[in-house]
Amino acid sequence: MKSENKILGAGLFTAIAASLCCITPVLALVAGTSGLASTFSWLEPARPYFIGLTILVLGFAWYQKLKPKKQIDCNCETDEKPKFTQSKMFLGIVTVFAGLMLAFPMYAHIFYSKTEKQVIVVDKTNIQTVEFTIIGMTCASCEEHVNHEVNKLTGIIKSTASYESGNAIIEFDNSKTSTAEIEKAIKSTGYSVTDKKEK
Question: What pTM, to 2 d.p., does this model score?
Answer without folding.
Answer: 0.61
